[in-house]
Write a structure and sequence with these properties.
Aspartate Aminotransferase, domain 2; three-stranded antiparallel sheet; 14% strand; alpha/beta; Aspartate Aminotransferase, domain 1
């Protein structure tokens, strides 16, 4: 983690804010490339596939049709209806468009939810290893992020018992992610039902980030909204970024109780207003087009084959790793080798092989490494062989 911002010129709102560790890795990549050095980037948090052709065409058509002005703050009604229908597809549960707000990427949805639901004096449980932005958003809301270490023997997942042990009378909610960044772990319906039942009993809010929802390899995609147990205090975060290779289009959303969604919309109306209109039309095409769905399935098939190759390599060097049931990350241990810390391992990979990965310390798991297999095809084998060389 980088140091918090501490200048006296800044307000107290950001004194505990830290720069994004994953974006810092991306900065290193750019710096090396500007110097003409070769870089094998396995630190990416995005699939380097082309956005589906029909989605690109829909965006061009939106411009031609003059859709270049404001929409409602909460998003196009047609897009919110499509999100509702897509949610019903995977959950079997109906959702009203009025329960949905479209945001500038899922990050904004997460921030709006934290800002609306949490505040000073609240504790928010964050199962760890975790995407570091979760804790930063909770901090920006002036609440206290509480890291809850998952069970490394169960792919770093937390259980209801683990969460209950970490809770206090200040606990107001938790942020949960499945498939998980950085581990790739996927919570089973039974595991989620226990957690949701606990949250309902304690009156906690659950912010469930399912941005990688459709990138699952060993089961059919599902949603926390489709469980047999429900908690009315649940906010579901989604988007098109990962599932359709649309990270740069910046379209996410939140689904939840109408009053909470209304409050999130009010926050948004005073910050960014509506998400990019053209991107909303692109997202509408992604969610409703059979062509886009077919390209998503092709991407999933390619990622599945890459995952298999990567796991075979990790097995060949007897590495300890989390089983990636979804997303597109490898999360493996380096703490037993002679290199030392995860930062040292990442530095050696970069210095000796030009391979970029993210140290596990960024996610609250020192001694582990996150590597993506969603980058450029030609880089993957080179990068994996360099990892194997260092692990040996």
């Amino acid at each position: 983690m980088t140091s918090p911002l501490s200048s006296q010129a800044f307000s107290s709102n950001i004194l505990r804010l830290e720069h994004s560790a994953t974006l810092a890795v991306a900065s290193k990549v750019r710096s090396r490339r500007e110097k003409g050095l070769r870089v094998i980037d396995l630190g990416l948090g995005e699939p380097m596939f082309r956005t589906p052709a029909s989605v690109n065409a829909a965006a061009v058509q939106a411009i031609s049709d003059g859709h270049t002005h404001y929409t409602a703050v909460e998003g196009l009604s047609s897009l919110r209806a499509a999100i509702a229908k897509d949610t019903e597809r995977v959950s079997g549960r109906g959702v009203k468009p009025e329960q949905i707000v479209v945001t500038t990427g899922s990050k904004q949805a997460l921030f709006n939810a934290c800002f609306v639901l949490f505040g000073e004096g609240d504790d928010v449980l964050i199962p760890t290893p975790a995407w570091p932005t979760y804790s930063q958003m909770v901090t920006l809301a002036r609440a206290e992020p509480v890291a809850v270490r998952g069970d490394s023997s169960n792919d770093w997942k937390v259980s209801a018992d683990i969460l209950a042990s970490a809770a206090t009378n200040r606990t107001r909610g938790l942020v949960l992610n499945s498939p998980c960044n950085p581990t790739g772990a996927v919570y089973s319906p039974a595991e989620l039902e226990e957690i949701v039942r606990l949250a309902a009993e304690r009156g906690w809010w659950v912010i469930f980030d399912e941005i990688y929802r459709d990138l699952i390899y060993d089961a059919e995609p599902g949603s926390i909204m489709g469980l047999n147990v429900s908690n009315s205090k649940t906010i579901v975060i989604g988007g098109v970024a990962k599932n359709f290779a649309m990270t740069g289009w910046r379209i996410g959303w939140a689904i939840g109780p109408e009053d909470v969604v209304g409050a999130m919309t009010a926050v948004q109306s005073n910050t960014t207003s509506n998400a990019c209109t053209i991107s909303q039309y692109a997202a509408l095409e992604a969610l409703t087009s059979q062509d886009a769905a077919a390209e998503r399935r092709v991407m999933l098939s390619v990622l599945r084959a890459r995952r298999q190759m990567a796991l075979e390599l990790l097995d060949s060097v007897d590495a300890e790793f989390s089983h990636p049931g979804g997303a597109f990350y490898l999360f493996f241990r380096v703490g037993n080798n002679t290199i030392g810390s995860s930062e040292a391992f990442a530095s050696r990979l970069l210095d000796e092989h030009g391979v970029v990965v993210v140290p596990g310390s960024a996610f609250g798991a020192e001694g582990w490494i996150r590597a993506s297999y969603a980058g450029l095809e030609e880089d993957l084998a080179v990068g994996l062989n360099a990892i194997a060389s260092c692990l040996r």
